[in-house]
Write a structure and sequence with these properties.
Blueprint: H1 43-57, E1 62-68, H2 74-84, E2 89-94, H3 105-111, H4 123-133, H5 144-158, E3 163-168, H6 175-185, E4 193-199, H7 205-208, E5 214-217, H8 222-232, H9 239-249, H10 253-261, H11 279-289, H12 293-304, H13 310-319, H14 328-332, E6 337-339, E7 342-344, H15 348-357, H16 360-373, H17 380-389, H18 396-406, H19 411-424, H20 428-444, H21 448-459, H22 465-482, H23 485-499, H24 504-521, H25 527-536, H26 544-560, H27 564-578, H28 584-596, H29 600-617, H30 623-636, H31 640-656, H32 660-676, H33 680-688, H34 701-716, H35 720-728, E8 731-732, E9 737-738, H36 740-756, H37 760-774, H38 780-793, H39 799-812, H40 818-834, H41 838-854, H42 858-870, H43 896-906, H44 911-918, H45 922-936, H46 941-947, H47 950-955
Parallel strand pairs: 1-4, 1-5, 2-3, 3-4
Antiparallel strand pairs: 6-7, 8-9
Helix pairs in contact: 1-2, 3-6, 4-5, 5-6, 8-10, 9-10, 9-21, 11-15, 12-15, 12-16, 13-16, 16-17, 17-18, 17-19, 18-19, 19-20, 20-21, 20-22, 21-22, 22-23, 22-24, 23-24, 24-25, 24-26, 25-26, 26-27, 26-28, 27-28, 28-29, 28-30, 29-30, 30-31, 30-32, 31-32, 32-33, 32-34, 33-34, 34-35, 34-36, 35-36, ...
């Protein structure tokens, strides 16, 4: 029967058996080609489709248009919508080029499975539908009566479960079907009907589908692309191969599938190119075949020069005897978009395919013509590149011109130019030198795969020592950002030794990177050997840059060996020198020096300048590191929201440029930011994404940040002993092993955890270390934290403890971090309440509560509100809805103090842990627990846990 659900009718209308990704010429292709894994990179679109289906099921019909270029995953999303529809009736159709002249052909295929229901409709509907289904309805005959009849038929066919209509390749629909289906899609309100269409943005698609909500499918993120590659090629691929695959695919999922299928994981240097019979190539050829020779030639000009402007194309066209208007059919076909600023290929891969599909002779001729058309000094590099592309065999003169012109171009253009210059070089040594320089530009432009390939080509040629050292320096820098820190250190130290006193600038730059490597890996004790190498270079009259690097290296080494006075002095000098430099990489050195001496405001200023400089220069290699330093400075200043946004941006930048280590740093920092606010779920999510790394006896920065985050979560959850273990695992400061920088950042929380755990010896030992560092700083914020730690270590309820907390608050007043000031006010409020000074306690607790609410630090809000209630003051704080208790207990309400203790006990805390958390004696907690049991009529902790969740208990407190 025609109304059967999809589970009984798959043969009649199977969901999505063809793919709009490939165009009509490739025929019926199963969508599983792009069904690699569940919605890689398309989770938000999938959620939107599920919402459309859910709305239709509830009687609020909706439609949506998936608009994306060839291969962007439209068919996968159509399949996802079909799966989300569950037992709804599924009807499908698709546009087919060969039927574009067949009026109502696509609509006929959509409605054919439910044709026998047409006769059961009212006559005004059944008559017009019968003519449609019998092929007797001509174009232009129906209009709104047909729309109304289709709506009624779909409503009747869907019944209580509703109906989902999917339309693939909507841009290829015959016009009458397109107009009718679009009109139906606009009139679904109040019906159990969902319509999902998929189309490429070409032709007049936008016209007949206007008014339908649209989801635009753009290129996938680099991370999603990596996941797709991991799905298709589960073995470990060389980073160079991954980078090349990502660069070639340009975010197109079908391209990734086809490239992966053509890639041999065992091949160390695979040919990364879409196969000749690639579905994407065939689809593009199909679209090109309908264009005239003149149009294809103009399209080739646009593909041959990404910077080509409209006026330049017009000039080239005139030189070739062409009318620039011949490009219009390519625009209509959606292959290219023309604007005054240049030409955009909506599907970036199309540019590559258009160029590669043209015969070699035509490509060379196009380059010669473009070279003649580009005049003036501003076009020097572009002109040289076009001349090189049209040249056969070695040409030393043109190679030299390319090398000279490359200095004035962007990083990506310079890399391409120098690679071609190497190919034109007659001398192998010159070719190798140009390849290494090209690799440097490729790395800076965010293409580490290309950089490694170019370095591999250079390594096959005998080169002089300086070029070899430059290659090692670049390899070391790339390993530092995306590989093993030990490998990076070996390469960087070898480069520094090879440069020696003859090339002090480069030698010191290599040592600076080596210092970053040991700092990342948590091997700060190795700074001493790096310092010795720097001093051995013998720099009698250093330039400003050399002095900056020497000051940074010697200052960091002094700091890590415990000579804080010298370390702070030298690092402060490095920061002062960095203020005068414009180079982004050098600015990051200045910013990192500031962070080591807690000059957060200057660190932020230098990092912001580094970010701006990297953006202007197009230097993708330094951007993730600059953003990391900026985020750390913002975190230290208590600007958590800004730090989170900065680190999210840094994470994206790191992943886009293949810098896995930098990505790990940002993930760890995001975990810390969430943990500081008490966001347990968010923190665990970020920390869980941190990749495993580090050497056996070391803790790298991502791992150290993760331990800090987890330690904070333990502290929140009142597991102080576990928190101490987490924090202590970050470093062993007395041996120099572990991550000393992160350890110092987390030290105030380690002191607090140790006090709460009753481990006063650890608290005092860590405080001595923190004191020795903070004492030499100008930063009042760090001195405030030191005073707070002294308050924690002092005897509870003593005048000494209160004075230390008040000293901390006075110093906080000179600093910026509102979060740390609020934390100190919370601790002081707790101390004052226990010293029987509730009025003063309430004053500090109210101020702390306000700050935590502004920071959206829910966990701290809850804790401070509970303290405020216990001090006799009203507090309003956002609460999660409590779970339904098994039964409501009789008896009088709990006091604020009793509710707080009960909540902690329900969460699993022992009486001793509750006492440590609330700064009470264990005897006092025992007394309160007896009263709680008596009031609630229970006899055990198990009964208490069954009665309420923690929030339910808190909700019973007296106000």
């Amino acid at each position: 029967m025609p109304g059967r659900r999809r589970r009984n009718n798959r043969r009649n209308h199977r969901p999505l058996s063809k793919s709009s990704l490939l165009g009509n010429t490739v025929g019926m292709i199963d969508a599983s080609l792009v069904h690699i894994s569940p919605l890689r990179g398309r989770s938000s679109e999938g959620a939107a489709l599920r919402d459309v289906v859910a709305s239709a099921r509830s009687g609020q019909g909706r439609a949506v248009l998936l608009c994306g270029e060839i291969g962007t995953g439209k068919s996968l999303l159509l399949r996802h919508a079909a799966e989300a529809a569950h037992d709804a009736l599924l009807l499908t159709t698709a546009g087919v080029t060969s039927e574009s002249g067949l009026a109502y052909g696509a609509l006929h295929r959509l409605l054919a499975p439910v044709a026998d229901l047409a006769d059961r409709l009212p006559p005004q509907h059944s008559t017009i539908l019968r003519r449609l289904l019998d092929g007797a309805l001509g174009p232009g005959e129906a209009g709104l009566p047909l729309v109304a009849a289709v709506l009624e038929l779909l409503t009747r066919a869907g019944g209580a479960s509703g109906v989902l209509c999917t339309v693939d390749d909507a841009h290829r629909l015959d016009r009458p079907s397109a107009q009718t289906l679009a009109a139906v899609a606009r009139r679904l309100a109040g019906r159990r009907i969902a319509v999902v269409l998929a189309a490429c943005p070409q032709g007049d698609t936008a016209g007949f589908l206007a008014g339908i909500p649209t989801l635009s499918l753009t290129a996938l993120s680099p991370e999603a692309c990596r996941q797709i590659l991991a799905d298709r090629l589960p073995g470990a691929l060389p980073e160079a191969t991954i980078g090349a695959l990502l660069d070639t695919a340009m975010g197109n999922p079908l391209a990734l599938v086809e490239l992966a299928a053509a890639t041999d994981p065992a091949d160390p240097d695979p040919s990364v190119r879409l196969p000749a019979d690639s579905l994407l190539r065939r689809a593009c050829r199909d679209r090109l075949s309908g264009l005239s020779a003149e149009t294809r030639r103009l399209l080739l000009f646009a593909a041959a020069d990404p910077q080509l402007r409209a006026a330049e194309l017009a000039a080239a066209a005139r030189s070739d005897g062409l009318d620039v208007g011949a490009l219009t059919p390519a625009e209509t076909a959606g292959l290219v978009r023309a604007g005054e600023s240049g030409f955009t290929f909506p599907q970036p891969l199309v540019r590559t395919i258009v160029y590669e599909e043209a015969p070699l002779a035509q490509r060379r001729a196009a380059h010669r013509l473009l070279a003649r058309s580009l005049t003036g000094e501003a076009n020097r590099l572009r002109r040289a590149v076009h001349l090189a592309a049209s040249t056969y065999g070695p040409d030393p003169r043109l190679a030299a011109e390319l090398e000279s012109a490359a200095r004035r171009g962007g990083c990506a253009a310079a890399s391409v130019a120098l690679k071609r210059a190497a190919e034109l070089s007659a001398d192998p040594a010159s070719a190798a030198k140009r390849l290494v320089t090209a690799a440097g530009y490729a790395w800076r432009s965010g293409h580490p795969g290309d950089a490694r390939t170019l370095l591999g080509q250079a390594a096959s040629t005998r080169v002089d020592g300086v070029v070899q050292a430059q290659s090692r320096l670049l390899i070391g820098e790339m390993e530092l950002r995306s590989g093993a820190a030990a490998d990076a250190l070996r390469s960087l130290l070898a480069a520094a030794d090879a440069f020696g006193p003859a090339n002090r600038d480069l030698a010191l730059a290599a040592l600076m990177r080596a210092g970053e490597a040991v700092s990342f890996a948590g091997g700060h004790y190795r700074y001493a050997s790096i310092e010795r190498r720097a001093r051995a270079l013998g720099v009698p009259q250093p330039s400003a840059l050399q002095e900056l690097m020497l000051a940074h290296l010697t200052g960091a080494a002094a700091l890590f060996r415990g000579d804080h006075e010298v370390g702070v002095q030298r690092l402060r000098r490095a920061a002062e020198l960095a203020e005068a430099v414009p180079d982004a990489a050098t600015l990051t050195w200045g910013s990192s020096a500031c962070l080591l001496i807690a000059d957060d405001a200057r660190a932020l200023r230098l990092a912001e300048r580094a970010v701006t400089g990297a953006d202007v220069a197009g230097d993708r290699s330094v951007l993730p590191r600059a953003l990391e330093l900026k985020a750390i400075a913002e975190c230290n200043l208590g600007r958590f929201a800004a730090a989170e946004q900065t680190s999210r941006t840094g994470l994206s930048a790191a992943r886009a440029s293949g810098q896995d280590n930098c990505a790990g740093n940002h993930l760890g920092l995001l975990g810390v930011l969430a943990a500081l606010r008490g966001d347990r779920a968010g923190s665990l999510r970020w920390v869980g994404a941190v990749p495993a790394g580090g050497e056996r006896d070391q803790v790298d920065r991502p791992a150290a940040l993760s331990q800090w985050a987890l330690g904070m979560l333990d502290l929140h959850a009142m597991r102080p002993a576990e928190a101490v273990a987490r924090f202590a695992a970050i470093a062993q400061p007395w041996s120099g092993r572990g991550h000393l920088v992160v350890y110092i950042m987390a030290a105030p929380y380690l002191v607090e955890a140790a006090v709460r755990a009753g481990d006063r010896s650890t608290a005092q030992r860590v405080l001595r270390l923190y004191d020795s560092w903070a004492a030499g700083l100008r930063d009042p914020g760090r001195r405030a934290l030191a005073a707070r730690c002294h308050g924690l270590v002092a005897a509870r309820g003593s005048a000494d403890a209160l004075e230390h907390f008040r000293t901390a608050l006075r110093r906080h007043a000179e600093a910026e971090s509102g979060f740390e000031r609020a934390r100190t006010q919370l601790l002081l409020g707790q101390e004052l309440r226990r010293a029987r000074q509730p009025r003063q306690a309430r004053e500090h607790l109210r101020m702390a509560l306000e700050v935590f609410q502004q920071l959206d630090a829910a966990s701290w809000v809850e804790q401070t509100a509970a303290e405020l209630r216990a001090a006799g003051g009203p507090a309003t704080a956002p609460r999660r809805a409590p779970a339904e208790p098994e039964r409501m207990p009789a008896g009088e309400p709990l006091t604020a103090q009793q509710a707080q203790i009960a909540r902690l006990v329900v969460q699993g805390a022992t009486n001793r842990e509750v006492a440590a958390q609330l700064f009470l004696s264990t005897r006092t907690v025992d007394h309160h627990m007896r009263n709680i049991f008596a009031k609630l009529g229970i006899r055990s902790r198990m009964e208490l846990a069954r009665l309420f969740t923690a929030d339910a208990v808190a909700g019973r407190s007296a106000h």
